[in-house]
Structure formats: structure tokens, C-alpha cells
Write a structure and sequence with these properties.
Helices cover about 70% and strands about 0% of the residues. It has about 45 residues and is mainly alpha-helical. The chain has one domain (about 1-45). Keywords: Membrane, Transmembrane, Transmembrane helix.
Length: about 45
């Protein structure tokens, strides 16, 4: 009987890769757009 290595992390089990990069990129763009909107409203005094 062979034991599985306990060193396999959650990342290997989840199968992370391009999906995680896309997720982080999406949140970054969303955050920057939100901050840009807030600054624009503040600067223009709308």
C-alpha cells in the first residue's frame, strides 16, 4: 500500500492556473474603475 504525499497543497487540488489570474485581473479592473468613478465625482463636484 502506498501513502499519498501530504505535501500536495490545496492549489494542486483546486486546479488553479489561468482562472485565478483572470479572477484577480477582473477584481483589479473593477476596483480601479470604482476608484476612478469616486475620484471623478469628487473632482467634478457632481
Amino acid at each position: 500500500m502506498q501513502w499519498r504525499s501530504a505535501s500536495t497543497g490545496a492549489d494542486e487540488m483546486r486546479g488553479t492556473g489561468d482562472d485565478e489570474i483572470s479572477y484577480a485581473t477582473g477584481w483589479t479592473i473593477s476596483g480601479l474603475a470604482t476608484l476612478g468613478t469616486i475620484v471623478a465625482i469628487w473632482v467634478l463636484g457632481i
